[in-house]
Amino acid sequence: MQPTSSWIVLSITGLYMLSLALISFGVRRHSHSTNNYTTGGGHFPAFLIGFLMLSEFIGTAVSVGTAQTGFKTGISAAWNLFALALGFVLFAWLLARKYKDLGDNTISGVLSRNYGQKTRFATSIITIFALEIVAVSIYASGGAVLASVLQVDRTLAIIIVGVVSVMYVSIGGMRSVIYTNFVHASLKYLGVGLALWFGLKQVGGISALHTQLPQNMFDWTAIGWGQIIAWMIAGIGSIFSTQYVIQAVNTVSDAGKAQRACFYCAGLMIPFGIGAALIGMCSAALFPQIDSLQAFPRLIASMDRLTAGLVVAGLAGSLFGTISAVSMGSATLLLRDFYEPWFNPEKSDVKSLRFVRLATIAVGLLPIALALTSEKVLMIAFLGKALRASLAVLVLLVFYAPKFGTPKAAFLSIIASLVATVGWFLAGNPWGIDNAYIALFTPIVIMTLGHVMRRGTPPEPVLPKVVDGLKQQRAGAL
């Protein structure tokens, strides 16, 4: 792409981001209290929340990472999006109503009702750690796109992405995230569609792609069932226990709308996954000698300036949308679980609002340094998801088997899952066993041992009483 074209692409992206900033400024009046800043200050339609959750899960890391994997293994790379779609369907059936009835908008708050304050703090730590890992992959992939398309240094691109993202999300709080992420998801869909259309046109269509690539790249299970199942564990687990998903389902007026939002999100993910994988395959046919991480960026760089500008704007928008969700989730946990109990026990809203704004900036800037050395984008993204799979086990036990295990075992399982999963990842997933399996089975084993070894009669769980009390209050109000 010529320098003039790069400036045109940058201008289109800049205008798009300016319009999003105007939206954020326009709704900032709804973020003048801590509660409104973290919840959006109202109820929203199900389709809007569906797009909100979609935008958070089809960020640049997933788009670039799926294309990167599609470049190497083919169409089976789409399974990572299929796993997320299945996760949202299961979440709608199993947990959406329960989270909505409970009314608690933090994952740590939900678990602490059954397992105590120690588990609350441990849950916050592992959730924030997992979200920061996701942010690393987002910055790395976003930097790769901008560096390739705009022909700038990758380090500079990552720093720009990080700083702009943080400034953008800190303006309007959760309400701006909801509205702007609807725009992000729509444009992201358009961008991937345009990139796929261009790629298929360049190779001569699907039939020509079949002749130019090895046949195994069209095998839907070429990635291997071990990897597919690992993606399912990580994807489903992350959705069940992701902080910003819980915040999202609490922004609709009732449980039925929360379920519909999840179904909308799942339905939109499947074609997106197929499109991203095919983009990687088109790049493999057109540019077989490039590094796999450049599969999506290299294709964009070959497009005409107007189309490339729209695609890059969509990628940039999804990047900022995901960062906003990650930053908002982490900042909310820091506020509710650490700052207010220890440093603001009087619950001064002025102090809390100031803290959560500063925390949003801090957790947004922190991952930039690690992103500068990150190459395996999709693998890093799914490490973040795998870590949350361990929390998903505890969430399911809280709602469906509250008497199983012990509070001490729950606390130990979180700490052990964090250490074991990250250690397994750093060791290179020995014997071909993905770290997602470690994240899943560690809490199962520890909670089972805790259940078997406990003595005496366990205390009756608090959570069922809370839910029953809420339902009785609502019935009385009606």
Keywords:
symport; mainly alpha; Putative Sodium-solute symporter; 0% strand; Na/Glc_symporter_sf; Sodium/glucose cotransporter; globular; 478 residues; transmembrane; 21 helices
Describe this structure in words.
- It contains 21 helices and no strands.
- With 478 residues, the chain is mainly alpha-helical.
- The protein has one domain (3-389): Sodium/glucose cotransporter (Up-down Bundle), CATH 1.20.1730.10.
- It starts with a helix and ends with a helix.
Enumerate the spans where pLDDT stays under 50 for 5 or more consecutive residues: none
- Please provide the count of β strands: 0
The first-level CATH class is given as Mainly Alpha
Cα distance spanning the termini? 63 Å
Strand content: under 5%
Question: Can you summarize the main beta sheet?
Answer: none
CATH architecture: Up-down Bundle
What is the H-and-E element order?
Answer: HHHHHHHHHHHHHHHHHHHHH
* pLDDT averaged over residues: 80
Give the domain tally. 1
Give the name of the CATH superfamily. Answer: Sodium/glucose cotransporter
Rg of Cα set:
22 Å
- What kind of assembly state do the chains in view correspond to? single chain
Shape: globular
Structural class: mainly alpha
Tell me the number of helical segments per DSSP (H or I, 4 or more residues long): 21
Per the CATH scheme, the topology name is Sodium/glucose cotransporter
Provide the helix percentage.
over 70%
Protein name: Putative Sodium-solute symporter
GO molecular function, one term: symporter activity
Family: Belongs to the sodium:solute symporter (SSF) (TC 2.A.21) family.
Pfam families: SSF (PF00474)
